[in-house]
Design goal:
Distance between the termini: 34 Å
CATH class of one domain: Mainly Beta
Radius of gyration: 18 Å
CATH architecture of one domain: Beta Barrel
CATH topology of one domain: Lipocalin
Largest sheet: 9 strands, antiparallel
Strand content: 35-45%
Number of strands: 17
């Protein structure tokens, strides 16, 4: 599997930053988010915004700026969704060209006025920004963010790698949720429905954008978490990939996708059915998920994935799904 792990960052810090100006916006707002760990399509009909113009990389960030935090109850700007509420936050991502798939339960982040992720920081070694990329499949609501950096080159720092250049059919897929204030309530099973997804992309950008359809259910007990997933990823001109945990969403107690009791993360991998470029001789799908959103801490579930098999790293299929609980 194309999966990398890096140390978790246990302490969040508050930062105030001036956003890079957008080509069509006169101002932007600042959010602080609080980060964890793990490596590495036609656009869905539920996309609620078009691509956002790339930031002007010629204007430096100003750490002394005194910009107010975004107000979740305020009006959306420049055609974006509802601004996300106060943090701290968690992020999952699945990205091509060496970044891989990962989950960060606590990060600091800068978010633009239309709800686009400008940058996040997990540590001094991991603080990438979108640079010249646009943001596709943009989603923003009071509890979550979702999108895909594409069509440009990242800025910032990602360990000793980068910058990373993406075509329109590649990208850095991300999902952000408000982090729960404490351990998840042991309330039994939470059933989730698909809220938004990024467009599925092939690692090398050689396939058209694909569509993602998924269901999820998370069982939270004193012993930990069990996650039921049913996933279908259709890549035009390639294949349709399907995967389901044992028991599916009807009985997540049988699932091998787990998660402990001390944080909001779930993770694991399961076999995939589909004889496409990503699976020349069978393959798995790896998941990295984070539960959060709202006072209950379970209103949103951000799930990143990568479908890949032996010898198929350059044809891996990636995406991020945002789920909502009733």
């Amino acid at each position: 599997m194309n999966v990398r792990s890096r140390p978790s960052q246990g302490r969040a810090t508050l930062v105030t930053m001036r956003l890079l100006p957008l080509a069509t916006l006169a101002a932007a707002s600042t959010l602080w988010v609080a980060c964890s760990s793990d490596d590495s399509a036609g656009i869905p009909a539920d996309v609620d915004a078009g691509s956002i113009p790339a930031a002007d990389a010629s204007t430096p960030l100003d750490a002394s700026a005194d910009a107010p935090p975004s107000d979740a109850a305020g009006e959306a700007e420049a055609g974006g969704g509802t601004p996300i509420g106060p943090g701290p936050y968690s992020i999952v991502y699945s990205a091509a060209n060496g970044i891989g798939i990962d989950q960060r339960p606590t990060v600091t982040t800068v978010v633009g006025a239309s709800g686009e992720l400008e940058s996040y920081e997990a540590s001094e070694q991991e603080k990438p920004s979108r640079g010249t990329n646009t943001v596709a499949e943009l989603h923003s609501d009071a509890l979550s963010l979702l999108g895909r950096w594409n069509g440009g080159t990242t800025a910032g720092t990602f360990y000793t790698s980068g910058p990373f250049t993406y075509s329109a059919t590649q990208g850095f897929h991300y999902g952000v949720v408000i982090k729960p204030a404490s351990a998840l309530p042991q309330t039994g099973t939470v059933a989730y429905t698909q809220l938004k997804t990024t467009a599925a992309t092939m690692e090398d950008g050689s396939a058209a954008l694909g569509t993602i359809t998924a269901k999820a259910a998370v069982l939270v007990t004193a012993a930990g978490k069990k996650t039921g997933i049913e996933l279908t990823v259709a890549v035009p001109g390639d294949a349709t990939y399907t995967a389901s945990t044992t028991g599916g969403v009807a009985d997540p107690s049988q699932s091998t996708l787990g998660g402990g009791t001390t944080n909001n993360a779930v993770f694991g991998e399961i076999p995939v059915t589909g004889a496409g470029a990503a699976c020349p001789a069978g393959c798995n799908v790896a998941f990295r998920g984070l539960i959060g959103g709202g006072p209950s801490g379970t209103s949103r579930f951000a799930l990143a994935f990568v479908v890949t098999g032996a010898g198929a790293a350059k044809k891996s299929v990636r995406g991020v799904i945002m789920f909502a609980a009733p």
